[in-house]
Amino acid sequence: MTKKKNISFEELFEKLEEITNKLEQGDVGLEESLNLYEEGIKISKECYQILSKAKLKITELKKEFEEQIEKDFEE
Questions:
Q1: Angle between the N-to-C axes of helices 30-74 and 9-25, in degrees from 0 to 180, rounded to the nearest 10
Q2: Among candidates 45, 3, 47, 39, which has minimal Cα distance to 22?
Q3: I want to staple 19 with a disulfide (CB 3.0 to 4.6 A). Which of 4, 26, 40, 41 is the partner?
Q4: Is the dihedral of CA 4, 8, 14, 16 positive or negative?
């Protein structure tokens, strides 16, 4: 379900919140709870991967920026 292409972090996070709310309400059976929990774990992993990629990109951009500043001051 969450393997759709171009699904945003925000959409994944919203789905994760929906699952969490269902589980917290406590009115679902054991089997459905397990399925929801499993889906939540899969979504959490996808969110983590997206955040890891974003962190790497930010780190790269920051490094490029700092190198450019350092280069400008040397001139």
A1: 150
A2: 39
A3: 40
A4: positive
